[in-house]
Specification:
- Helix content is 10%, strand content 33%.
- It has 276 residues and is mainly beta.
- It has 2 domains: 16-37 and 47-154, no CATH class; 157-275, Beta Barrel (L,D-transpeptidase catalytic domain-like), CATH 2.40.440.
- The strands form 7 sheets. The protein has a 5-stranded antiparallel beta sheet, covered by helices on one side. The protein has a 5-stranded mixed beta sheet with strand order 14-13-12-21-16, with helices on one face. It has a 3-stranded mixed beta sheet with strand order 17-18-20, with no helix packed on it.
- A hairpin with a 2-residue loop joins strand 8 and strand 9 (127-131).
- The protein is globular.
């Protein structure tokens, strides 16, 4: 099977930054597989280290799936397409609420054992606006480009989920890779809508319901925690095909095996747009 972090041929350009994405992602596979032992249901088990401040800015919170960040702008166009640009910090970098503003959080270079890759949703001279993996859903922040710690690449993919039709569509360069009927959140624990992104790829060492779990940068709007974790929403498989086409989950998107295989080929940081 293809390395689950490696972009497929044509998924990224062959620029140095894109090649770096492949090499860093490939070496992170072993680490992510170990981290996957923490995965439970629609979230990862609590990891106290994820909430600790990191340099620079020792008193600032980290932007991870375990944290809630205050004072940052919300995604202003949650259904819009991006140009596919994704960014990776090679070391922890500060996050600002506005271009040129003071740091309010720190973005670590790793998420859930693998490299941090986030989609760029806006630009200003010397600054990139990115979607963040923390609560609240749709939180964004600004990263300065002059520190020499950011690498960019481009994903040609986009993932669309329609919760009303229970439909997953994967696009590559605007062309459909495939369409699948999936299971989504029920009325009490709906799959959150809006624009998010593929955050990580985890392979449980002892899989129960899925050989692969693909967390995104969004959380349940009705569950503060699930299975001891922060309520992170994810794509994953399911052993019973009878669930597909139904609203029966705690917010995650359960997908058929062939859809999971295609999702495993999508680069980290790729936008995911969920509509109702």
């Amino acid at each position: 099977m293809r390395n689950r972090f490696e972009p497929p041929r044509g998924g990224h350009s062959t620029s140095p930054a894109a090649r770096s994405l492949r090499s860093r992602a490939a070496t992170a596979g072993v680490v992510a597989a170990a981290a996957a032992t923490l995965a439970t249901g629609c979230g990862q088990a609590a990891d106290p280290a994820q909430g600790r401040p990191a340099s620079p800015g020792a008193s600032l919170p980290q932007a991870t799936t375990y944290t809630t960040l205050r004072g940052l702008p919300q995604d202003s166009d949650p259904s819009a397409n991006t140009d596919g640009t994704v960014v990776h910090p090679t070391a922890p970098v500060p996050i600002s609420a506005t271009p040129g503003g003071p740091p309010v959080a720190v973005l670590p270079d790793k998420q859930l054992g693998g490299p941090t890759w986030l989609p760029v949703v806006g630009t200003e001279p010397g600054w990139l606006r990115v979607l963040l993996p923390s609560r609240p859903n749709g939180a964004t922040g600004w990263l300065a480009t002059d520190g020499g710690k950011l690498r960019t690449a481009r994903s040609s993919y986009r993932i669309n989920v329609d919760t009303s039709d229970r439909r997953l569509v994967i696009l590559n360069s605007g062309r459909k890779v495939g369409t699948w009927t999936v299971a989504v959140g029920d009325a009490k624990t709906p799959t959150p809508t809006g624009r998010t992104f593929l955050l990580a790829s985890l392979a449980p060492t002892r899989p129960t319901y899925s050989r692969l779990i693909l967390p995104v940068g969004a959380h349940s709007a009705t569950l503060d925690t699930f299975g001891g974790g922060p309520g992170t929403v994810a794509f994953h498989g399911w052993p019973q095909s009878s669930v597909f086409g139904k609203a029966v989950t705690h917010g995650c998107v359960r997908v058929p095996e062939n859809a999971l295989k295609e999702l495993s080929r999508v680069p980290l940081g790729t936008p995911v747009v969920v509509t109702a």
